[in-house]
Amino acid sequence: MASKAIVSGVYDTQVGSLPESTCMSLHAEASLGALADAGLKLSDIDGLLTAYSFASPQLMLGGVLAEYLGFRPKVNASICMGGMTGGLLVRHAESLVRSGLCRHVLCVTGDNRLTGMGERVQAALADVGHAQYEQPYGMSVPAAFAMAAQVYFHEGWLNGDHLAAVAVNQRANAALHPQSHMKKPITMDDVRRSKVIASPLRMLDCCPVSDGGAAVIVSASETGRDRPKRSVELLATGEGHTHEHIFAAPSLVDFGCRESVGEALGHAGLKHTDIDSAHIYDCFTSTLLIQLEAMGFYERGAAGPAALAGEFAIGGRFPLNTNGGLLSYGSSGPAGGMFHVVEAVRQLRGECGQRQVKDAEVALAHTLGGIFSGHCSILLGRA
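RESULT FIELD:
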């Protein structure tokens, strides 16, 4: 009989400028922290899934990490799918556990992109553009995401105040988290006055480049009674893919997040209104609002006004990215999405202090790769 899967342990490092960090030190800290959180030993881990690193590119990062930590997992693999990778690690770990192949799967992400790469990060990200139709014309990641935002602005579905409201709310959330990268309070005027990066996106509409790491341990549900922390059940996951390069996107308003969330809700037998706390990939303010509508949480043109009305605040109608999200908690490659999973688990455990959503029983974590290209949605429930 297939085992159900739970999240037994989570951990995220300090996020921001960590000049003493390396790719391996962040992976090791996150791994050992998640083990301690789960009450497990390294020898209990029989599956290891990792992402990738820009600062320290490795052909087989999972093998390097296993060697670094000194253990021999039964299953070891690395996945490289951009910002959606953190969610995919958890989705694949669930499959390993449900199949009975593994009992405890350690999923690890991390990179020291800020101090390890500096300005080279932007060049590395620009290289993911299509070699023939995007790179020769100077397409950057912000410019690519701004194309979708421009459609929304043109149709009147979004404006600058809507974007600014998202940035301000998430900075307020990050100020409540001791490990966040960006804690300085900002105002709507601060966002409006920040320099234009790729119209209509301004500096404070964009996530920072950070150092940091995060890990999640997915375990067989029957092991939960032996764990020191409240178990969180993996209710369902979903995946959606529509394109790779933005010039080939079939739409600039509908994306694979609709399929990924729909699949997860369908498998879990839940509705959009059952979700108490949402943690959705937010590399740009517009990206978050566009996805909320594509996912079906809001009608077209309604997410921006909801942000202005305060619905996404911790005490609001739809609490969103309570750790500050990529926009203010920080973004360190695939760890950015994994931070969402960690925060979702902590919300369901009731461990978030001033950030705690009252009576949170069901949470959504969503990760995005490429330019709206690939999506992974994870539904978690308080066991």
